[in-house]
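Query form — protein ferredoxin--NADP(+) reductase

QUESTION: What is the three-dimensional structure of this chain?
INPUT:
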Amino acid sequence: MSASEEKFTRQRVYDIQTLTPNLFTFRASRDPGFRFRAGQFARLGVTKADGSVVWRAYSMVSSPFDEHLEFFSIVVPGGEFTSELSRLREGDTLLIDKQAFGFLTLDRFPDGRDLWLLGTGTGLAPFLSILQDFEAWERFERIKLVYSVRESVELAYQELIAGLTQRDYLAEYAHKLQYIPVVTREDHPGALRQRITTLIESGELERAAGLALDPEHSRIMLCGNPQMIEDTRAVLKTRGMRLALTRKPGQIGVENYW
Ligand SMILES: Cc1cc2nc3c(=O)[nH]c(=O)nc-3n(C[C@H](O)[C@H](O)[C@H](O)COP(=O)(O)OP(=O)(O)OC[C@H]3O[C@@H](n4cnc5c(N)ncnc54)[C@H](O)[C@@H]3O)c2cc1C
Ligand SMILES: NC(=O)c1ccc[n+]([C@@H]2O[C@H](COP(=O)([O-])OP(=O)(O)OC[C@H]3O[C@@H](n4cnc5c(N)ncnc54)[C@H](OP(=O)(O)O)[C@@H]3O)[C@@H](O)[C@H]2O)c1
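ANSWER: The structure tokens for ferredoxin--NADP(+) reductase are given below.
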């Protein structure tokens, strides 16, 4: 089969940054034909020693207008994909499906005033893509980024988040963003300590945000741990909010990572 007939392209890995033994970030070259909307994911392929290829979904961290692609990865001990991925070195080849996928994009919400981005662990990734693009900043009056990890060393991309509103093209919108880190298993200055679900139930999240969660104004994206997503949806349901579907508007968009 010729390269143009294949469903994927071969890209080069570079700029690998280790955050913890279980978390790392990396960049990959981007095929000029690879198009995506902020919030979508790619299918990445790694080749095992026996020559077979393993594929997994990975949200883009980078924005649709960046020349490169950036990803944020967990290392699952014994995981079929991440065992191979974490062995890759600068210059190695990564397969990337030619098509991008996913519905955790802003077109899920035709209206709304406040955008809440609630993520656990590597579920931060699509929100960074969304926040590096214009649309969210133009459309929403307020943006709350809530990022929950177990321990403070797992808080990734702190510099990128802090620098977002310093970027020339976002500076005029700087007042719209509030970043609310959550560290659940230790005290960390400036971070909330309870799970996102508990913080919503107790009202602590809204107090920290200075903003109410309500069906008219709030549009909420949930990404990461599937149990967090299920539990948060249940809490939000009691507040009159439900999943936004193509034919039935709602307040919530989700991406389960496993
Ligand atoms: C739409 C979508 C987007 C995704 N985007 C990302 C991403 O940007 N970054 C990323 O690291 N992973 C992402 N994932 C998960 C990723 O596809 C793989 O599951 C992950 O790379 C582990 O692969 P594995 O073969 O090593 O383990 P798997 O056999 O795939 O998973 C084994 C177990 O590891 C745990 N696990 C898997 N992924 C994660 C994770 N991300 N964080 C914490 N625990 C996990 C779960 O308990 C899972 O049952 C995404 C998944 C989906 C469906
Ligand atoms: N070996 C290591 O050093 C190490 C370190 C971290 C993770 N891991 C492994 O990696 C995997 C994923 O870890 P992770 O830390 O990325 O993901 P995680 O378990 O999803 O935790 C990330 C954040 O989500 C919160 N959370 C989990 N379930 C929730 C729920 N139902 N509702 C609301 N919030 C919820 C966690 O709070 P809580 O703290 O309250 O759970 C934590 O703040 C796990 O299987 C874990 O065993 C290994």
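ADDITIONAL NOTE: The CA atoms of residues 186 and 193 lie 7 Å apart.
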